[in-house]
């Protein structure tokens, strides 16, 4: 029996050591390192989209400023407006000179209806410096994929009513180099978002 006990104890040690190694790798690498660590997805990266004036923009156009990014669509009846208001409120809670260093970005998952003009008018209603981005179906699909955003068209319950888009709802914070820093889940209060953004600014 002794060999069995030693065997089990040894196995437990190996497992514990393995978990410790995994934990260290996760903490050191984080989920956003190039290529991901341990199969964790990267968030963000290159994108090509169209701004409210119909110009093609890429992540390079936002280099040098931390971004707060949200994906949704202008026809969204509840979640998107709520989250965009939370972003705007968070920026309003920050000292103005700090808020001015953050670029808020709203990216549509519904390019069929969200034309550049529609996006431009929509974001302006939430925050003066918020940028609304759309694109071709392929451009939007690529950007959403980069940010690990799920979306799918849902046919309306009744004929004649507008279709809805199911979509994941995370607020992403990217640093001045365009690297993922963190995200906020749906319903996060503006105070917490503001504190998180100030941390990003303080970190440089
Ligand atoms: Ni929505």
Structure write-up:
With 204 residues, this protein is of the alpha/beta class. It has one domain: Glutaredoxin, CATH 3.40.30.10. It is built from six helices and nine strands. Strands 5-4-3-8-9 form a five-stranded mixed sheet. The termini are far apart. The N terminus is likely disordered. The site of nickel (II) ion (NI) has 6 residues, from α2.
Structure keywords:
204 residues, five-stranded mixed sheet
N-C termini distance:
59 Å
Task: Work out the radius of gyration.
Answer: 21 Å
CATH topology: Glutaredoxin
Mean pLDDT: 86
CATH uppermost class:
Alpha Beta
Q: Kindly estimate the percentage of residues that lie in beta strands according to DSSP.
A: 15-25%
Number of strands: 9
Helix share of residues? Answer: 25-40%
Order of helices and strands: HEEEHHEHEHEEEEH
Give the name of the CATH superfamily: Glutaredoxin
How would you summarize this macromolecular structure in one to three sentences?
This protein is α/β, with parallel strands linked by helices.
Topology diagram in text:
Blueprint: H1 2-29, E1 48-50, E2 56-58, E3 67-72, H2 79-93, H3 96-99, E4 103-108, H4 116-124, E5 131-133, H5 137-146, E6 151-154, E7 164-167, E8 170-174, E9 180-185, H6 190-202
Parallel strand pairs: 3-4, 4-5
Antiparallel strand pairs: 1-2, 3-8, 6-7, 8-9
Helix pairs in contact: 2-6
This protein binds nickel (II) ion (NI).
